[in-house]
Amino acid sequence: MNFYDKYQAEFREYDAMTRDFIDDDKIWDQLHKAANSSKTAVRKVLAKAERKVRLDPEEMAILIQNQDQGTIEEMYALANKVKREVYGDRIVFFAPLYISNKCANNCRYCGFRRENKLVERRTLTLEEIADEVKTMISEGQKRTVLVYGESPETGIDFICDSVRQVYRTKWGNGEIRRANINCAPLSRAELAKLKEVGIGTFQVFQETYHHQTYREMHPAGTIKSHYRWRLYAQDRALDAGLDDVAIGALFGLYDWRFELMGLLYHTIHLEEKYNGVGPHTISFPRIEPAIGTPFSVRPKYAVSDAEFKKIVAIMRLAVPYAGLILTAREKPEVRREVLPLGVTQIDAGTRIGVGGYRQAAGNMLPAKEQFQLGDTRSLDQVVYETCLMGNFPSFCTACYRVGRTGEDFMAVAKSSFVHNFCMPNAILTLKEYLLDFASEETRKAGDRAIQQYVDQMAEGKRKDFLRQALARLEQGERDIRV
Ligand code: SAM
Ligand code: SF4
């Protein structure tokens, strides 16, 4: 069978639909209506957001269209408050692991696209995956997202083998405790196999929610050109029993205002269909120039740093219980600026070349990468800075490992659980990092932050537990969690 025919039978389900949940005209209509909203209207939306209730599209449109600097500043302050109340002062750390850059698609913006002759194509063998994972663990990583192009070589059985290999690989005291997946949309039968191997989150970015732009970016004749196959990728994952799904848009392909609305409509669709379970995380990468790829950001739709700040804050307020991921595509100065506006996860120490971790550790020439990274600092440097900024780097994977995912996780996030469990787990996993992997300077900064946190806790069982657990870690015990 021709590779492009792989899902032809399954496409019928979507081809038969007369419409999907993204109505381009309606979105523009809502955005136009919200233009010139009064400060009172903006403050009314902010008051709802303060109650940590998911916003409706009309309300999000008001925040998007607001040009008044005073209320924009109020929005930033509120986004920071909501983030701290829901998630605490912690930032979850992860690093992507690029498994294969072979791809049969031809997305105009991506360095992995089929027609790009400047990229050396590689799929890691299982042995090479183990080598990459060992290097990542030796740097202190505990969570990863595995990234794959879409090619016959990286079908579902290979993906499952690679996940097993990641979990099986150990180095010293360490291991990868959660492997998320970023790959092409899959069928329900394939997704059920992913459930069996125990992946964390299943992540697919729609790239652009705008139908016409989607067609222009993804040439016909490729699997990726099927908008609805992609749009309903998370539905199929939930149907197949996976608990955590993630969405995202690639900013710079079309108007950022429209894409934000698309992300909200996607969230609402999932919440309504799956018993209140929305996306576990939302990503909002900006396009970066890619090697051998003349198409980059469309100047008309380039997202400025000021607009990027708005995107993060509005997303935080509109969907208070979804994690927000900020990747190392962004430069350190941008990351510093937007982190307080509601980001919950960042990657650090990232290498996006296939085989890139070992190459970097061995000072070999870097592999040609998918796009240019903005933040090339080491994990240690970013942990250090995060501690100084008053946040606790967290390597926690407890919820996933005890089965608090999907619906259960949403219930957890909506309660004080985060402060009673996630914060202590953040501190304990940070302490593990400091003991096993950190530089002297980072260890001191991290220990100082931990001490301050413990000192300000009220006396009682929680404080006693944390003190004792920290002492047990110092004595060599590992993987202590609440
Ligand atoms: N092949 C799978 C797919 O397309 O969903 C997963 C891997 S793909 C490398 C992961 C994501 O990288 C894409 O969904 C896209 O949003 C992002 N990406 C592609 N080209 C990019 C670029 N030039 N700059 C930033 N992100 C890019
Ligand atoms: Fe392939 Fe994904 Fe890149 Fe498109 S974005 S060319 S599908 S790797």
UniProtKB/TrEMBL annotation:
GO biological-process terms attached to the record: sulfur compound biosynthetic process; water-soluble vitamin biosynthetic process
Keywords per UniProt: 4Fe-4S, Iron, Iron-sulfur, Metal-binding, S-adenosyl-L-methionine
Coiled coil: none
UniProt keyword Transcription regulation, yes or no: no
Recorded name of the encoding gene: hydG
PROSITE patterns: RADICAL_SAM (PS51918)
Cofactor: [4Fe-4S] cluster
Gene3D superfamilies for the chain: Aldolase class I (3.20.20.70)
Start and end residues of each Radical SAM core domain: 89-341
Organism superkingdom: Bacteria
A molecular-function term among this protein's GO annotations: metal ion binding
Protein name: [FeFe] hydrogenase H-cluster radical SAM maturase HydG
Family matches, as PANTHER family: 2-IMINOACETATE SYNTHASE (PTHR43583), THIAZOLE BIOSYNTHESIS PROTEIN (PTHR43583:SF2)
